[in-house]
């Protein structure tokens, strides 16, 4: 299979973890006889430096034309005081909006080897298997242009949604729940926000179309609490943009580290942008110690969901599991009696597991 993959490494640890994902994908391509062609483009702070804007036109064009997009992370202290249009994060928001990637899928599944890596008790995290379906192109992030008024003493951000925007993400929530354990938790703040009351109405309407799915409404503050006291009570969560952003970073604690979680941002026709949920981690950038697994798992997510390469995606995920079972871990993971490794070493261990797997397959075939 021949695929054109747009690589947007971004800033901070972005290029370090992207290198890992690229190396692992190259091994997959060799072993399974695929042709992955990588096209690297600028986004975020490095694009501001080189082009004066965080999402150059040529990057957007390449992203639209390729078969799938892999993104590292954007942002960092260097650009913190730039005007809004030159902030790295605006590049990320713009690519999501311009490509219409309205649904962000954030699976949170405990890898058994990391059961002790979470600060939460083993019996609490043990059965966690959740997917957060986060609305990605509306809400507070995309309201009327935010503004400061009255000499900077007053400020406005606007939370606005169109009905169709809520309908399509809520549908995605039901469809996802249907393909899983058929339980949907809709998270909102309907006791305060009008937008949440409309959201709840739409969830109730859609529920009639999905009688097999049990639906529960949970207010976001309570959901934040339940997520770490009883994560096993969740299956599929559907929620608006900002709530989904916050809850998914919180949920990463279940898996042992923010560095473990992948995500997919998709639209109806299947074009997908795959990225870890974490940011550019300026505090560890350049040290070669970042956890590459969220990025590698984002690449396997791409293989499965955009290219239909189930066997290859499973092989990659299996290799990640094996590396962790052998006790290898980066510094963000609190693994007792394990082997602390760098980003590059972790990548090599994953590649080693992948290669060992294909050698044992060869032996089986002989
Ligand atoms: P962050 O996610 O970058 O980091 C939070 C903490 O988690 C840090 O201590 C960091 O070292 C650690 N961490 C994150 N990823 C890690 C990994 N792979 N391995 C090991 N440790 C990891 O969040 P932040 O510090 O609040 O934000 C830093 C910058 O990243 C900001 O500019 C922010 O806007 C940006 N950001 C970008 C994205 C994105 O591009 N998708 C997402 C979140 C934040
Ligand atoms: C994420 C990030 C982004 C978001 C920022 C950097 C705009 O936190 O992808 O989770 O809030 O969506
Ligand atoms: Mn976030």
UniProtKB/TrEMBL annotation:
<dbReference type="InterPro" id="IPR004429">
    <property type="entry name" value="Isopropylmalate_DH"/>
</dbReference>
<feature type="binding site">
    <location>
        <begin position="76"/>
        <end position="89"/>
    </location>
    <ligand>
        <name>NAD(+)</name>
    </ligand>
</feature>
<keyword id="KW-0460">Magnesium</keyword>
<protein>
    <recommendedName>
        <fullName>3-isopropylmalate dehydrogenase</fullName>
        <ecNumber>1.1.1.85</ecNumber>
    </recommendedName>
</protein>
<dbReference type="GO" id="GO:0051287">
    <property type="term" value="F:NAD binding"/>
</dbReference>
<dbReference type="GO" id="GO:0009098">
    <property type="term" value="P:L-leucine biosynthetic process"/>
</dbReference>
<feature type="site" description="Important for catalysis">
    <location>
        <position position="189"/>
    </location>
</feature>
<keyword id="KW-0028">Amino-acid biosynthesis</keyword>
<dbReference type="InterPro" id="IPR024084">
    <property type="entry name" value="IsoPropMal-DH-like_dom"/>
</dbReference>
<dbReference type="Pfam" id="PF00180">
    <property type="entry name" value="Iso_dh"/>
</dbReference>
<feature type="binding site">
    <location>
        <position position="96"/>
    </location>
    <ligand>
        <name>substrate</name>
    </ligand>
</feature>
<dbReference type="GO" id="GO:0005829">
    <property type="term" value="C:cytosol"/>
</dbReference>
<comment type="function">
    <text>Catalyzes the oxidation of 3-carboxy-2-hydroxy-4-methylpentanoate (3-isopropylmalate) to 3-carboxy-4-methyl-2-oxopentanoate. The product decarboxylates to 4-methyl-2 oxopentanoate.</text>
</comment>
<feature type="domain" description="Isopropylmalate dehydrogenase-like">
    <location>
        <begin position="4"/>
        <end position="350"/>
    </location>
</feature>
<comment type="similarity">
    <text>Belongs to the isocitrate and isopropylmalate dehydrogenases family. LeuB type 1 subfamily.</text>
</comment>
<keyword id="KW-0520">NAD</keyword>
<keyword id="KW-0464">Manganese</keyword>
<keyword id="KW-0479">Metal-binding</keyword>
<feature type="binding site">
    <location>
        <begin position="279"/>
        <end position="291"/>
    </location>
    <ligand>
        <name>NAD(+)</name>
    </ligand>
</feature>
<keyword id="KW-0100">Branched-chain amino acid biosynthesis</keyword>
<feature type="binding site">
    <location>
        <position position="221"/>
    </location>
    <ligand>
        <name>Mg(2+)</name>
    </ligand>
</feature>
<dbReference type="GO" id="GO:0000287">
    <property type="term" value="F:magnesium ion binding"/>
</dbReference>
<feature type="binding site">
    <location>
        <position position="106"/>
    </location>
    <ligand>
        <name>substrate</name>
    </ligand>
</feature>
<feature type="binding site">
    <location>
        <position position="245"/>
    </location>
    <ligand>
        <name>Mg(2+)</name>
    </ligand>
</feature>
<keyword id="KW-0963">Cytoplasm</keyword>
<dbReference type="InterPro" id="IPR019818">
    <property type="entry name" value="IsoCit/isopropylmalate_DH_CS"/>
</dbReference>
<feature type="binding site">
    <location>
        <position position="221"/>
    </location>
    <ligand>
        <name>substrate</name>
    </ligand>
</feature>
<keyword id="KW-0560">Oxidoreductase</keyword>
<feature type="binding site">
    <location>
        <position position="134"/>
    </location>
    <ligand>
        <name>substrate</name>
    </ligand>
</feature>
<comment type="subunit">
    <text>Homodimer.</text>
</comment>
<comment type="pathway">
    <text>Amino-acid biosynthesis; L-leucine biosynthesis; L-leucine from 3-methyl-2-oxobutanoate: step 3/4.</text>
</comment>
<feature type="site" description="Important for catalysis">
    <location>
        <position position="141"/>
    </location>
</feature>
<dbReference type="GO" id="GO:0003862">
    <property type="term" value="F:3-isopropylmalate dehydrogenase activity"/>
</dbReference>
<feature type="binding site">
    <location>
        <position position="249"/>
    </location>
    <ligand>
        <name>Mg(2+)</name>
    </ligand>
</feature>
<keyword id="KW-0432">Leucine biosynthesis</keyword>
């Amino acid at each position: 299979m021949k695929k054109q993959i747009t690589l947007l490494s971004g800033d901070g640890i972005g290029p370090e973890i992207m290198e890992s994902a690229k190396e692992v994908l190259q091994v997959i391509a060799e072993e399974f006889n695929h042709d992955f062609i990588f096209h690297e483009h600028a986004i975020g702070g490095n694009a501001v430096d080189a082009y004066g804007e965080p999402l150059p036109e040529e990057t957007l064009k390449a992203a639209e034309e390729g078969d799938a997009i892999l993104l590292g992370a954007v942002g960092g202290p260097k650009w913190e005081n730039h005007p809004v249009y030159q902030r790295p994060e605006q590049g990320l928001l713009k690519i999501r909006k311009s490509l219409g990637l309205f649904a962000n899928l954030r699976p949170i599944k405990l890898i058994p080897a990391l059961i002790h890596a979470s600060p939460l008790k083993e019996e609490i995290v043990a059965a966690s298997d959740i997917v957060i379906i986060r609305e990605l192109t509306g809400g507070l992030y995309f309201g009327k242009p935010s503004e400061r008024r009255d000499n900077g003493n007053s400020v406005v951000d606007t939370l606005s949604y169109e009905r169709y925007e809520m309908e399509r993400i809520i549908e995605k929530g039901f469809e996802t729940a249907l393909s899983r354990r058929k339980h949907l938790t809709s998270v909102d703040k309907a006791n305060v926000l009008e937008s949440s009351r409309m959201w709840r109405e739409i969830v109730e309407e859609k529920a009639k179309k999905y009688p097999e799915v049990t639906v529960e409404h949970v207010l976001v503050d309570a959901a934040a609490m339940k997520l770490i006291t009883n994560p096993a009570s969740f299956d599929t969560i559907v929620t608006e943009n900002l709530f989904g952003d916050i809850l998914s970073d919180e949920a990463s604690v279940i898996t042992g580290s923010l560095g473990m979680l992948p995500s997919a941002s998709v639209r109806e026709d299947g074009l997908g942008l795959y990225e870890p949920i974490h940011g550019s981690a300026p505090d560890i950038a350049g040290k070669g110690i970042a956890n590459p697994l969220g990025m590698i798992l984002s690449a396997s997510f791409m293989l499965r969901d955009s290219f239909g390469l189930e066997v290859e995606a499973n092989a990659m995920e299996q290799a990640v599991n094996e590396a962790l079972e052998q006790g290898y871990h980066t510094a963000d993971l609190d693994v007792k009696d394990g082997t602390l490794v760098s980003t590059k070493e972790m990548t090599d261990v994953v590649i080693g597991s992948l290669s060992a797997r294909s050698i044992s397959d060869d032996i089986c075939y002989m």
